[in-house]
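Me: I hope this is not a bother. Any chance you could explain this protein sequence and its structure tokens? It all follows right here:
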Amino acid sequence: MKHVAPHRWADLWAGRVDAAERTAMERHASACPACAKTRERVTRASDTFASIKNLPLPELSWDSVRAKVHWSVSTERRAKVPAATNSRAGWIAAGMVAAAAVATLFVDRPAPPAPPAPIAMATPRTPESAPAIALAGLVNRTTGDLMVDGIRPVDPFAGKLAAGQVIATGDGRVDVQFGAGSAFRLGPHSRLQLVRFDSQAIELVVDGTLDLEVAPRLAGQRFVVRAGAREIEVRGTQFRVHHQGGATSVACRHGLVSVRDTTGAVEVGAARRLVVPSDKPVTGERIAALSIEEVSDLADATPMTMPLWHGDALASSAPLE
């Protein structure tokens, strides 16, 4: 008997081979190492396919897909298309330039102008600080209940979040981006107030769970999260603040955050956590190391940022017309 074709081993595994042929194939494989190896490979693959078939379908993040489509399509639709050049007008303009050049050949050249008088140099003034530019946040992903200023938004991806607004979640969460590498995620049953939201300072007040990814701040910029009587300030990091019932927990995945109250300040570094009970001062608590599972949990909770963010993102991501 010649070598058994691989697809016949698959047929044998699926029960599509009669008893006589099955016996002949097995007898041949017992004496042929090549066919025995092929049978083992096909059988192992078939067993794997059967297990995959019984697995549940993966859950798709439709909110993430919708946000990406919304940003991409709205950006393309609002891109400015340069007007087409009028060829006839171009020829006329070229003719006028040529005529002017010829005319200069028949006109006496004027005497060269006298050199300009020296100009006194003015004393340079100290540049004034640039005024604060209002920021706006855009929703990248949301699940479950979401309220903005006490109202459930019809299309949370179309609106912009600005200073003074309050975001609240029920059993869901929301990811909001406010820069190329900066975003926050408000966890379930949480409340966040955007007290100040501009290019000079961002001040957030949280009650619940807030995960943040903050790009490095420029000189003079502040980023502060207030949790009850405690204040968390960052320069550029990923961290989580959980505030409930007066107690505050701050966990830092990378970077450095400063946690302070009226008694002083404590710095929390990468892979570290500080837990402050409601009736205890910040300076009286010890910093603990995060476990591998806790660091992984922080990584999984990283707020989503869209690579399409640019200077015109706030205009291009407005509601489609």
